Structure formats: C-alpha cells, structure tokens
Amino acid sequence: MTLMPRLMLLLLALSPLSALAAPAPAALVEGKDYELVEAPGPFAPLAGKIEVAEIFGYTCPHCAHFEPILEAWAKKLPKDVRFTPVPAVFGGYWDSYARAYYAADQLGVAQRTHAAMFNALHEAGSLPMQNVSPAELSTFYAKEAGVNPQAYETALRSEAVSNKLAVAKAFAQRVKVQGTPSLVINGKYLVKGTSFEDMLRNADALIARERAAKAR
After folding, report:
1. What whole-number distance in Å separates Cα of residue 136 and Cα of residue 140?
2. Which of 13, 43, 87, 126 could link 53 by a cystine bridge, Cβ 3.0 to 4.6 Å?
3. pLDDT greater than 90 at residue 10
C-alpha cells in the first residue's frame, strides 16, 4: 500500500474520534441566555414558520448600532424562519416613530427605508428625536422612497395604522420587554445576551430548539 492511501485510511479512522472530541455547544441557561415568556404567543400567526420578532425604536441609539449587525444576520435566516420588526410603543416620541414605521409599512416602503431612518436620526440629524411632524415624516419618505406625501400622511392618520400600534403595544407588554432592542422567539423566549453577537448566538440556538420541537 502506498503512502497516500495509508494516510487516507488513518484520517478516516481518526475522524469519528475528532467528532467526539469537538466541544458541544454550551447549553442555554434560563435567566442568563433567555427568559421564558409567562404568557406565550407569537406576534402573528406562525403559519408553519418560526418567528423572530425584534422590538425596536428608531430613536434608540442601541437599536441604531444593532441594525447593521441584525440586518446581516436576518438575511441568512433559513426559509422556515420569519423575521418581523415590531416598533416599540412606549409613549411620547416612541409612538410617533412607531406610527411612522407602520405608515411606511402600509405603503410598502418600510423595509427599504429602515436603515435610512436610523441614519436620519442618529447620523445626519435630518429628523428630530422628539415632536416630529407629519410633514417632516412625509418629506423623508418622499425623498427616500418616492412616496406621495399626501398618501403617506393619510396612512399616518389611518385607523389601520392605529390598530397596528395597539397590537405592537400589547405584544411588548405581554412578553414584558424591558428595553430595546429585544428579540422574541416564537413568542416564547425573550432573548438575553452580554453583547449583540451573544444575543444572536442565543437566538440561533432557540430557533434550533423550536425547529427540533416541531419535528417531534
């Protein structure tokens, strides 16, 4: 037998041992890596999907820093996972920008203006953190997405948008969100972590847990 076949046989023989020697992923710890939601339930009907809901606020600086990291992660989610942004409805200027998001969503431009809104508030300073007017918002969305300002302001005042705010507020209260950004998996797990990357690792593990539970 030549040297190369011998080496290949040796590698094949050792590979199961290598797999056994590889460290297993650390088990998630309740209270440290996640909190169980006392009154579980997804933000929207699952329809066979695993839901990741992000509760965020446009005026939140932590959300602004998290956004590019989260966007890259969300783009790689498997097809059985649904990512849903949920604006925080905590009162005052939080509600103004939550309403802004849902009006944009109603017109089909929320996703493509998401990063631009964070930039306008935290980098460019072209929108005020507080007391933003409908005219300022409609001007922003006209510039960024070409929406008709009057159509945007009509959506902003619509009953449909008000109803969505009520649903978002009730969801955040039910899962007992303490701040933003927050990730909730299937309405069952409130993700924790010591960093944004740690949060996403824990989210991945909880998604895998829910996937395994579905397969049983």
Report:
1. 6
2. 43
3. no
